[in-house]
Amino acid sequence: MVQVAWLIPALPLIAFAINGALGRTYLKKRTGIIANAGVLGALVVSVLLFVAQLDHAEPETVSLWTWAVSGDFALDIVLRVDALTLVMLLVVTSVSFMVHVYSIGYMDNDPGFWRFFTYLPLFVFAMIMLVMANNLLVLFVFWEAVGLCSYLLIGFWFERQSASAAAVKAFLTNRIGDVGFLIGLLLIWHVFGTLNYDEIFSLAPVVEAARPGILTLICLMLFVGAMGKSAQFPLHVWLPDAMEGPTPVSALIHAATMVTAGVYMVARFNPLYVLSSTAMTVVALVGAFTALFAATIGLTQNDIKRVLAYSTVSQLGLMFMALGVGAFTAAIFHLATHAFFKGLLFLGSGSVIHGTDEEQDMQRMGGLFGKMPVTGATYIIGGLALSGIIPLAGFWSKDELLGATLLSGDLGYLLFVLGALASLLTAVYTFRMIFLTFFGKTRMAAERFSHVHESPRVMTVPLIVLAVGAVGAGFVGVPPEHGLIHNYLHDTFLAAEFAGLVHVPSTVFVLALMAVSTVIALLGILVAYGIFMRRSPAPESVAGLAPPLHALLVNKYYLDDFYDAVLAGGTRTAGGLFAWFDLNIVDGVVNLIGLVVRGVGGGLRRMQTGRLENYAFSVALGTALVLAFYIMMAR
Amino acid sequence: METQDLISILPEIILTVIAASVLMVDAFGGQRTHRSLMGLVVGGSVIAILVSVVARVDATSAFGGMVLTDGFAVFFKVLFIAIAALSIVLAFAQSKDVPFAELSALILFATVGMLLLGATGDLILLYLGVELTSIPVYVLVAIKRDRFRATEGALKYFLLGAFASGLLLYGIAWLFGLTGTTNLADMALYVQSQDASSPWFLLGLGLLLVGLAFKVAAVPFHMWTPDAYQGAPTPSTAFLAAGAKMGAMAGLLRVVVHGLEPWQDMVLPIIIAVAVASMIVGNFVAIWQRDVKRLLAYSSIAHTGYMLIGVAVVHTQSEAGGLARDAVAAVMFYAAVYALMTLGAFAVTFAVERRTGGTDMENFQNLGRTSPLLAAAMVIFMISLTGIPPAAGFFGKLYLLQVAVNGGLTWVAVVLVLTSTVSAYYYLRVVVNMYMVEGQPRLLPVPSSTAISAVVAIGIIGTLVLGIYPTGAIEWAQSALEEVGKLALTR
Amino acid sequence: MDSIPILSIVLWLPLIAAVIVLFLRERRAMFAVAMAGSALSLILSVAVWAGFSPGDGMQFRESFDWLPALGIQYALGVDGISLLMVLLNTFLFFLCIVYAWASVHDRVKEYLFTMLLLEVGITGVFLALDFVLFYVFWEIMLIPMYVLIGVWGGERRVYATVKFVLYTLFGSLLMLVAILALYFVYGNTTGVYTFDILELTQGTYGERFQLWAFLAFFLAFAIKVPMVPFHTWLPDAHVEAPTTGSVILAGILLKMGGYGFIRFSLPLFPDASQAAQTIILVLSVIAILYGAMVALMQTDLKKLIAYSSVSHMGFVTLGIFSFTQQGLDGAMMQMFSHGLVTGALFLCVGQLYERTHDRRIANLGGLAHRLPIFAALFLFFSLASIGLPGLSGFVGEFMVLLGAFVADIRIFGVLAVFGIILSAAYMLWMYWRVMLGSLKEVHRRLEDLTRLETAILAAMALVTLWAGIQPQVFIGIFTADTSGIVQALTATEVSSALIK
Amino acid sequence: MIIPALEYYLVLGAALFIIGLLGVLVRRNLLIVFMSIELILLGANVTFVGFAVALNNMLGQAFVIFSLTVAAAEAAVGLAIIVALSRHRDTLNVDEIDTLKG
Amino acid sequence: MNSETLLSLIFAYLALACVAFAVLVIMLRNPVQCALALVGVVFHLAGIFILLRAEFLAAAHIIIYAGAIIVLFLFTMMLLNLGVVERARQFHVQAPLAIVVGAILFLEFVVLTGATITVGAQGAHSPAWVAGQGGNVQALGQVLFRDYLLPFEIASVLLTAAVVGAIVLAKQKPRRPRSSSQMGVGEWMAERYEKAKTREQDPAEPR
Description:
Radius of gyration of chain E: 23 Å
Structural class of chain E: mainly alpha
Oligomer: heteropentamer
Low-confidence stretches of chain E: 174-187, 199-207
Number of helices of chain B: 21
């Protein structure tokens, strides 16, 4: 059965190839069908594989071809099928498929339709390969390929300067992370002499014993890559800007799949991470900080998609926090549930944007529920799931994650507080968004408001399907610690257990935590309701409590400006200096040599006066010199 | 005097006879005889070449050691006669403006001098050869009497030349007095048996070297060169560069190889210094030239410098055997190559001069379109002068570099390559003007000259053949030296 | 196969075509002959590939005495290293001549003659097994390149082309002296005077001599590569060169430097190479970062790509002087890839220039609207240039870095990695400003690529992709030969260690 | 045996040589420059003859014959050139004849 | 006073006179005077040759130098415009420098005199042999026409070439109606005078 695994990436790839080659001239609108078919095929095969592998989750591999052999470096292209891969595959293909379906409706009138449906399967292909990689290099290849696809999709509407800028920003920020990843990869090659997962994992303890500290370095470097891809502070800046892309893209890339690559990778390398407590601590701290940090920004954003974007950053932070305390399963669990409800929220906001004729500013919405009931209902489900209201998907995973954090020791308390605060804020901004968008009096012009309409069936059906997911996906993790997903992934994360990072909570603890979670979430919703529905206190007055703080949040802690000024500006200034240096100094020296030669020639030329007596003088002088030399030699 | 002796100078006699008959035919044949004169010269030259190759004597010398009859002499005889014939053919294109018969005769007389320089084993012959080469050439430079520049160039050349030959003569006088002979080989043998380090010897030696260095136009005795080259009518310049100068080079080689062996420590530094100075001055100053003839004059100074490296190497030591022989062969080969390419370059310049009335860089502009073949030929000559394959100049330089490195003169070889990088600049500037500058010099209604084309064609063929398959020429040069049984070459 | 001098045929076919072209009058006929010549050369070089058995050293050897008087032979042969270069060479030349059909209308005869001559020169460099023959080809190629830039180039073509020639000549002439010195040093120690590259490579040379000779060779190759700070001829030459000139320049000419390092510097002067390692690595890293930084601020498309070449070629030298199998293989792959990708980028710029008559980035913008096919291909090659995994550019860079890490020169590897960020920065920024955003009014009427142009770029794209996905196909050609070089190097390391 | 000693003749030759050389260097008049060159030749001639007698070798004297011949030939050609030149430019001063330079 | 002393005195006079005349050659203003001084040099030199028993050479010097070469000089001076020349500055600007170089050369000779002159191998032409041949002229003839016939012939070729050359330079060009050799000297001088008056530059020679 596993031998057909190559079909999973191949089908989207074929769809990409067909659409890319023929889309512009022949297929046009039909590209949508082909892309959907391809991704659906991948989904079906994934499900079949999952079912077939349900009992034994032993890793299996499919060799394709030899990539390169150079000395003792040899690398084959091999697909890997194991529990973690399959979980990821299911999430990726299913969410992707929904997005594909949805996009047929959303992109209907776009002149770049065929292009869109060329990029999408390519992206899915890259993501599938990323999770199916069996060695670090292939992982890296598609790690970058995913970045490329995000570049293509974010900059899809390339006539917009902002879209192009966002695309470049996304790619570059990712590249910075990738450099870390690449260094980590090279270090692994240097230390382990191999890039294959299994070999690395089995050698890890030996290496740690032989060269203490090197693993920490490697893990941190890899984590830099993960920070880039999964938008962790301080490399998160690309993600909110990436909302310039068409909304389905946001759903696909920036909620469900691409950004999870970092989480996946760290989870994949759990045998390495568990050996380095320093690295783990860093991961956890960065995650927790990012979670809170992004959530605070999310509070003040007015662009519906940007709120979701910061929310994503925040949720990813929570996942890293879980990874950092060794709760790998919890992280993956949250990853999966998050994929559903965040996908749902993004698609829902897309539906809103679609229905309101490209309106994205929540301050100019309100009262849309009546006009778009399906969208509204599913959106609220998604929002509840995100806030972590029992029994929706988000609740289970977030709860487990926070619990694991609390149990992980001294640092855990701090992390837990940060995570809990982030959860609280999550609920606040989520419902701020829901209230501002769907409820209250509309702030749209009457003319425009009257044109607001529910999206077509092809868009709402995916919403409904995802809503079902957002409701039900959490149950794979129920009961806590012993759900389907726990059993399934148990072997994959065995290393954490060996390292003593897994703490089995008592039932009381679980129940208490559930209660606390729920309270936090409800509190958040209540705050949002108070401020944004009842306007007591009014949002403005809350903002007025600490104007500098508010300004800080609205301006995203000025981080973008800082990067623009210091990194981009600095690089350009330096580039300008270098260019000047090159033109005037390096080339100047070259030209100077030419000038000197010319100058010497010009000087010598002046001796050619045209006057006979000077010529004769030259002869005589030469003679005198020759004789003088000889007289000196003779002595 | 024996028959052997006469046979050994048969080519010289033939040339003299041709010169005389040319004058006769012209005197009695009226105005329209230029074509037949040229036929006479070319035919006679071919015969002379054949005779020099075929009519060999058994002995290595004739006239009591005064005339050497070895392969070296034959090599240069063939080369010089060919150069003379080509120069006369080139001059034919201006036969309306100059007294062609006298010009031909003068070239032939000078050639006799060159042949003697190549065959000399005695300082008397050297002196006379130098003078016989120079005096007709003074006239050749001035032959367009109505042009001031021609007479100016000739005057400078003449006065300095006479001055230099005075120095040469004085030096020879001392060498004669201190050794009691003027025969080069006897001189070397005598000195080797005596104490050779007396400063008085060096006085003679130094003046001898100065005189010869002047004739080959080496820095700092070069100053006449650009003026004479530029002032002279182009065919005369061609002969001056390819002929007279190479004749002096042959004479210098003879002196260095046969006579100066005992003084090698003294000869070497001077020649190296002069060579380096020539390369630097020639190449650096040429950068500034706008007149192509003057440019080629400076380049000829630089090429003298290159060849002098080979001359210097004759007296160096190396672990690899046969170095001296290789060094001489390298200079011989280079002389042949240089003669061919410089003749060709001057021929093209001459053609341009006829068409546009000048030899300035501007006159070459757009030649690539107006006369593609001529331009292409010039490109090849320029490439060859630069020393880039597949033109012959490359192998000439390669061989010189090889002997220089072998002789331990690597730093001089480095100077050579660095200065020839500089040379690329000005040679390529000619190409730039022909192809890459949009300009259009005024074209004169002059019919193209078959004579010039023939010289250009021969130059091209020679340059390319020697550049692609130089084996024959190099082996000839090397084998020519096997018979030279003198001290220097048996090491 | 033994009796047919197939390498000579590959080598001289273009010359024959060039000579025939001289006698033709009609443009169509001239192109037919030129294309046939270069196509046959390409096909035959592929045939050589087919008959090539990796790891068996020099193959298809031919030799006869050329200048026995000076110990010079006409000797040809290929091993994996040269074969890959020859393939790249014939491939690019074929495409360039095809491209010229659409783009060159001025002095066609001279153009084709020049191009074909250039092909002969470059092929010869890679095939020669005799030092002098090698040098002859090394220099022969100067003149056609000089003419190519000087005649068909842009406004400052004369300055650029003279600079190019002088710079190159400067380096190569010093190399010539070193070659001659090598000849004698080897001859004096063994008694065998020869220019045979393979034989000279077997010799061992004293340290002092190695240093000097290495320096001379280094200058020649460093200028060709070009390494910082010998690179300033490159931007000028590129900017002024006609499109095909840039393609050849970037595509193959620069590779001669890398080839020289691999073929000559390392085997001939192992001790000197090791002594110079640190300096060269520093220069390489500087080239990578500095080239990228300078590229970032260029306003002229061609100049930008030229500086990107400097940056990319930095990886080549970095790989070579890591003295590891991976580094060397990476350098080879990087050269191959750079040849394809940068060549293609220059083609792209040329096509753009033909349409807009402008290369200043600021004057372009939004061209993707009018030129979708072009936009896609241009993007493809831009991405390949920044080393996107899956395309050829990545393979080389990655393996070079691998080599750097293996060789324990990690700091250079780490620094070089940052070049990857910068390369993405300048390429994408350039692409954004040129292709994306809103279209300028003057460009409303641009036409997309013709079929011919598309086909040329697509062919290059396919090979780029192929080399990215299955690099082993190409690495397999030469890895055995590079491993020989590495082993020889490490062997001397051991021996010199023993001496100490 | 020669009287006085050979050295005296040589000194005379050297003196003529140096005076001639100086003349070439300092004089402006073409003709006088030319005459100075003749002085150099005369100096050489004295040296030759002195050595010839001291060495009992007639070769030295024979050489002087050739030197005379050359001097005559040079005079013929050289003066012809000077005459030809003076038709263009009304000067015999060498430092005024400098259109060719650089 | 023995013959040796006498001869030495004669030599001293001749040598000093030679040097004095030589100095005059390079010092006098008027070229004609210079030429006459040169004649003086040649005459005294001939005396020295006689001292050396090279009678033939003494005669040859007088005949060729005084009789031919210097006459040629004088003739040339007659042809050319002397007045201008005489008034002009006689020495170059570089004269001081030139004197320095001359002094260096002189010093070099002085330094050289520190070393003894060891003359070369003795030849076969002892005074006895010369006397046996019937005197200097016969002896020189023997050597010249037997041992050095080839150089002698070459010298003749050289002279021929010089003559041809001189004629070429003197002869007017064919396309001109009348050559200068056909022109009367007075006529020619008049033409030159006109030329000098207008001081026309050669139009083909732009400065």
